[in-house]
Amino acid sequence: MKRLVICCALMILAATQAQADGPFYSGKTLLHPLVNASPQVEGKLAFLRESGEVIGRYEVKYDAGEHLVKDLDGFDNAHIDAVFYADLTGKGDSTLVMFSEQGQTRVRAYLWDPTSDSLRYMPAAQRLLDSLTLGRGMRTALEIKNAIYELLPFDYSRTYASTDIAAFDQLNHSAGEVVAVFDKEGQALETNASGRHLIKKTFLQRDGRWLTARYVRADEQDYRFVLQQIAWEREPKTLEGLLDGDSVKFVISGSRGLIHERGEYRLGKRVGIWMHAEEDGRFRSRGEYVEGRPEGLWTVQGAEGQYQNGLREGVWRKPMPDGARWEGSYKLNRLEGPARVFNREGQLQLEEHYVAGVKEGLLKRYNDAGKLVLQEEYKANLLHGRQLTYADDGSFIRKDISYREGRKHGPFRSNYSANLPENIGNYRHNELFGRLQQYVAEGYMYSDSNYCQRLQGTYATRYHCGEWTEYRAEGEVRSRVLYVNGDAQVGVYYYEDGTLKEQRKEVDGALEVQTYHPNGQLNCSKQLAPAGFEDVDNKRLAYYNITSDEVGDSRCYYPSGQLQWEMLTENGQRSCRRSFDENGKQTSPGPEGCKKPEVPKRTFYFE
Q1: Which Pfam families does this UniProt record tie to the protein (predicted)?
Q2: What is the pTM of this model?
């Protein structure tokens, strides 16, 4: 029977906006009663005759009221016997169409694909469905559904890559005999026991070997099984099986089963040419096994070299996408000595050193002109020592950073040029620590600051401490502030023209903070009580922060000098805030005056 090929283009060929004057099957002869297209979607499936051929067509309805009409498949001149639903994937019922022609029953399965809002033909299920119908005359939908229910719960939505081994590719996974069942730990179970993780089935016997397929649970939440391996085994009832002959392992990637590795075993040992792939199907390695060990020339992740007695030995080379190449030497399967990268012209780009597979000593990187642009020191695979980054022309050190066991620790410096610094400072525990001097490209220092640290185990958090000074281009001070515990204490700030912007100073055991308008007029004045005390350089110093209480009188002024608001302290009590307009008229509070402060209620407990 000729059938329409279900591909993406044909699946949406008839997808059209439904007309408002009636459903797509209106006024047409139905070859089968209307049914739901799928349990997962709202919309009807109809079978119509067009141009002498039976066509399955369905609609997809959306919440917004829109609905599309799509082609399901073509069935030539067949008679549509039934449409029913069965779980072939473990993720919900699929739509099965049973049809007959010349006395022969056939069934096709379609899976709802939410990514395309379409019913997708399931080629992986066809061999199963053919085995239930072909050569058996007419069968009922109930018989087919019951037969599916009795089978191993296999996920028939997956399609598996061809192995190019006829006996493997022609397997009907619904057939065969279950010979062993194992749990996740590899312990044998009864055939229908709960906790099944691995199931082994045999299909053929030849020369004391059985063609065996292994199936594993797709995941912990899915009771369906997927194909893991097809191989010839001499002891299929055991977990290992004593493989002897061709073997192919699969890995599931999306809706496909990709070949993960393929080759040949001889009495449990790998022999001959083997191919391995990544989990996404990309090539990983190819080479020969001798008595179960890699031997001779191999290609591994693009690198080519020799194996001796199962271990990498000697020089290995790897071409890179941009025409460059990598080369390094192995000893007992581990990198040993220098490893280098050359560009397409053969110019050295990178040189690093290994001891027993561990990066040790100097790493050097060069640009295409042959100039050294990076030099690093390593110990036990970690940066340890100086990391020097050079200018592109190699004329000066752009950055000089010290490391200890992979973390920044010690002095560092960055430069604009050979004689013009950018930053000079220190790291400790991967964070700035101590004095930090910062310069602009014009050559003057714009910041001279200090950092302290709080340690939690081996991790540090930094905070402002000590004196911080910022400068303008002329070398004049923009600000000079003393920090304690990350908070500004005493200090001064200036506007760009040099006029005073803010002044913070200690007066009679409190911090007096005064800010100024650009015209020099006092803006605001307040006093803060200490938040606590800190020992700094063997001195007991008060410190102030956001939790400090305001004490004394607080006032703010307009740029004209007119009082804007004030809050006074009388007998240790803060008065309410009085506000004034620019003409000196009081705007709050009103005639009622200030409310008396409420005395907080206290609760007394008695025993």
Answers
A1: MORN_2
A2: 0.72
